[in-house]
Amino acid sequence: MRRKLQHQLRLDERLFSCTGNKLFRECRVASAGENSLAQRARFATPTRASPRLQNRGENNPYTFNIYVTAGVKHPSIAEGPVYTLHEVSSEPNLRTVKKMIREQIPDVCIKAGIFWLPKKGKQCHTLCTEVDFQTAKEEYNNAGIVKNVRLAVAVLSNSGVGKPTATIRRAIIPHDKKAKKRKTAVSPSTDSDSDASCDEAAYEKFIEQSSDKGKLKSSNSDWNTCHVELRKALEQDGTLDRYGIQHLSLWTDLIQDGKVSGAHEEPDWRKYLNVVHVEPLPKRGMGLVRAKGQNDVLTTFLMQQEMRREEERENEKRRQRQEELLRQERQEDRKLEKQQASSMQALILHALSPRPQFGDGLSTCSSTQLSREIPTLNQGLVKMSVKDIGDALLTLKLGRYVQAFQDQQIDGAVLSHLNDEGLQQLGMNEQLHRSVLLGFISRKLLG
Predict the structure, then answer these.
(1) pLDDT (tens digit, 9 = 90+) per residue, 182-236?
(2) Number of C-alpha atoms within 13 angstroms, CB side, residue 408?
(3) Cα angle value 391/394/398 (rounded, 5°)
(4) Which of 147, 170, 180 is nearest to 59 (CA)?
(5) Are 83 and 68 in contact (CB under 8 A)?
(6) What is the enclosing helix (H) or strand (E) of 116?
(7) What three-state secondary structure class fits 161?
């Protein structure tokens, strides 16, 4: 009996444990099912008929770089150094970007012009409102993320170029994003940089520089006064007709700049031909009748061309006379060379010709030549050929005269009769070289 009761208790406990676990599992499954249903409802995949959901990456903040070109040339072309704004957040608006540009570029003048540039090219596009800024970012949008944007701003150095005119360009927005754009688009900015005092000062300086560079000379009373005085002074001297309008304007500018003292000091027109194109008429052309008014410069140009042709003819005649003089000089040089060659040949023939003998067997020559012209003393020099004489000159370090001796066919017999004057006729002009060769001749003759 006792065993039966214990067995029944075990069965009851086992049944209770099984029932409790089952109920717990059912509760847990129900909770998990509810969570999964909630998640399915949240991330449910839309049917083909339903509109596509927006990419969730667009709502996530990201950073990108802004490359700003400091300088805008006419007509609306960005050109200048490029500044980089690193890791700009996608959340800031156009006003924040302008503030960052002012901090990065010292001489920027945003009120004079700020633009955005396409991916390829330097053409400026309008960047006045937040809508324009969104358009610029759409240009560089890649799978919902903007990696970089190119902008351009005007600087003070562009004041003389004139304010550029930018084109208006809107990015093509897909149809499924138009609704979002209508909901999230920001109203046009009323900033226009009027609240930036620093940019106001820069814009005033920009306008001031532009007005200074574009000022007409006619409005400058000092320049007009100087110009009138210059014309009066030239008219009194009777030389006013020599100059055209461009000459007088440039002359007045030089007087104003202090480079020319006044009407009595004429500028060097050759330095300013890129401005006046032609020089004034010379004084010898003052008697010619010249047109007035608009044809003044043209008449000056034609007369100047005629004067230049006359100078070219004179230069040609002068060149021909110089060529004739050079030709005559060359003829005289050739005659002189022929005379020298003839005299050299005569000297050589005279040296080789037989000479009268004295009673003691010596020829009629000076005491200096006597020691060289004694054939009985040594016949070694007389027997030397032209080649041997050349080798001897090389040995004596007189190689520069070898060619001249060979051209004249100077052998040992001829060399034994040459004196200092004869060596000089052969082209040996240095006294030291002649002395060396004469010493060699003496040694050979005396053995």
Answers:
(1) 433 333 444 444 445 666 666 666 666 555 444 444 446 788 888 888 988 888 8
(2) 28
(3) 130
(4) 180
(5) yes
(6) strand 114-116
(7) coil
Residue 111 class from Cβ within 10 Å (0-12 exposed, 13-18 middle, 19+ buried)?
A: buried
Give the CA angle between residues 411, 414, 417 to the nearest 5°: 145
Residue 312, both tokens = 């070219």
Q: Which pTM was predicted?
A: 0.31
Q: How far, in whole angstroms, is CA 3 from its chain's centroid?
A: 115
CA–CA separation, 163 and 402 (whole Å): 83
Strand order from edge to edge, sheet including 148-153: 82-89, 63-70, 148-153, 114-116, 125-126
Which residues fall within 8 angstroms of residue 205, CB to CB, at 6 or more apart?
109, 156, 159
Enter the tokens of residue 232: 């009066």
Note the pLDDT tens digit of each residue in 122-175.
778 878 888 888 888 888 877 667 778 888 888 877 665 555 545 544 443 443
| Of the candidates 335, 430, 421, 415, the residue with the CA atom closest to the CA atom of residue 382 | 415
Instruction: Quote the CA–CA distance of 444 and 204 in Å, as a whole number.
Output: 103
Point out the residues of the chain with pLDDT beneath 50: 29-30, 37, 41-58, 165, 168-195, 212-219, 285, 287-295, 355-377
